[in-house]
Amino acid sequence: QVQLVESGGGLVQAGGSLRLSCAASGGIFWIYTMAWYRRSPGKQRELVGFITNGGTTNYADSVKGRFTISRDNTKNTVYLQMHSLKSEDTAVYYCNLHPAVGTYWGQGTQVTVSS
Q1: What is the pLDDT of residues 33-71, one digit of tens each?
Q2: Fewer beta carbons within 10 angstroms: which end of the chain, N or C?
Q3: pLDDT (average), residues 61-87
């Protein structure tokens, strides 16, 4: 049984910051590449970025320079630090492996940036 639980979302004003957490349990270990995804209403799910077991990160052009992904392997937790938030960042944020595994999708956490 694999479970990914996202947390940390909320309402923030444009230009603000937010830190999301993804706690993994049920067999997901530090060796796997983990990723953050997001989905806005009426839009396709997109890959925000990912982090490998070695700490190498990759980000979508839309968030480069503003978002930072990190991981704490001792806690099996992945983080998404978001700065300089824009209204277009409003979405439900999910974590998953990269490539994503369909059965691993959790509830996600809502991030709303004031327009």
Answers
A1: 999 999 998 899 999 999 999 899 999 999 999 999 999
A2: N
A3: 96
Q: Which residues of 42-79 are buried (b: 16+ CB within 10 A; e: fewer)?
A: eeebebbbbbeeeeeeebeeebeeebbbebeeeebbbb
Tokens of 47: 């890959």
Give the chain's length. Answer: 115
> CA distances (Å), 32 to each of 15, 51, 79, in order?
32, 9, 15
Give yes or no for a contact between 71 and 55, defined as CB atoms under 8 angstroms apart.
yes
Tell me the C-alpha distance between 82 and 77, whole Å.
16
Question: What three-state secondary structure class fits 102?
Answer: helix
Sign of CA dihedral 13, 15, 21, 22: positive
Listed residue (61, 98, 78, 100) closest to 8, CA to CA? 78
Three-state DSSP at 87 gives helix
